[in-house]
From TrEMBL:
<keyword id="KW-0969">Cilium</keyword>
<feature type="domain" description="Flagellar hook protein FlgE/F/G-like D1">
    <location>
        <begin position="88"/>
        <end position="150"/>
    </location>
</feature>
<feature type="domain" description="Flagellar basal body rod protein N-terminal">
    <location>
        <begin position="1"/>
        <end position="24"/>
    </location>
</feature>
<dbReference type="InterPro" id="IPR001444">
    <property type="entry name" value="Flag_bb_rod_N"/>
</dbReference>
<dbReference type="InterPro" id="IPR020013">
    <property type="entry name" value="Flagellar_FlgE/F/G"/>
</dbReference>
<dbReference type="InterPro" id="IPR037925">
    <property type="entry name" value="FlgE/F/G-like"/>
</dbReference>
<dbReference type="Pfam" id="PF22692">
    <property type="entry name" value="LlgE_F_G_D1"/>
</dbReference>
<dbReference type="Pfam" id="PF00460">
    <property type="entry name" value="Flg_bb_rod"/>
</dbReference>
<dbReference type="InterPro" id="IPR053967">
    <property type="entry name" value="LlgE_F_G-like_D1"/>
</dbReference>
<keyword id="KW-0282">Flagellum</keyword>
<protein>
    <submittedName>
        <fullName>Flagellar basal-body rod protein flgG, putative</fullName>
    </submittedName>
</protein>
<keyword id="KW-0966">Cell projection</keyword>
């Protein structure tokens, strides 16, 4: 019952986040629980009749949770027409820096400019390495090699801002 309850909670979380950009769903895996005959288990642990009285295992004791795994498959790509929305196609994560300086990783591509003028997640976590975005940026362009360039008002060519490492 507890294993199935965890499964239902995991499915509910997956459903609740179906429209969350960059969310990775989870899957619960199960394993059979094996029961030992208590009398034979006690004898085997005590060492009496070792070799003559092997513990008897029987199936049917239920199931337990073997593990919960994140599924990192690509989600649906939705065009937003927002200049700072970026996606990761294939493998990889964006590295961001938490307020205490610890690195964190995300596949969410909804970006904004934080109060320091750097590219950051919608939660305000700065991309690492930091990429400063000019105030007059009209569009961001991310090249296949991760270079971030900006179309800045009044300039014909793209300005290099930095590189995203995945």
């Amino acid at each position: 019952m507890q294993a199935q309850q965890l499964n239902v909670e995991t499915i509910a979380s997956n459903l609740a986040n179906v429209n969350t950009a960059g969310y990775k769903r989870s899957r619960v895996s199960f394993s059979d629980l094996v029961a030992l005959d208590p009398a034979r288990r006690t004898a085997a642990l005590a060492g009496s009749d070792a070799g003559l009285l092997a513990p008897v295992m029987r199936m049917g004791a239920g199931v337990g949770v073997a593990g919960i795994s994140k599924l990192f498959d690509a989600g649906d790509i939705k065009k937003t027409d927002l200049p700072m929305d970026i996606i990761v196609q294939g493998e990889g994560f964006f590295e961001v820096q938490t307020p205490d300086g610890t690195p964190a990783y995300t596949r969410g591509g909804t970006w904004t400019v934080n109060r320091d003028g750097n590219l950051a997640t919608s939660a305000g976590l700065a991309l690492k390495p930091a990429i400063a975005v000019p105030d007059d940026v009209q569009a961001l362009v991310v090249q296949p090699d991760g270079r971030v360039q900006a179309r800045v008002a009044g300039q014909q060519s793209l300005a290099d801002l930095g590189k995203i490492d995945l």
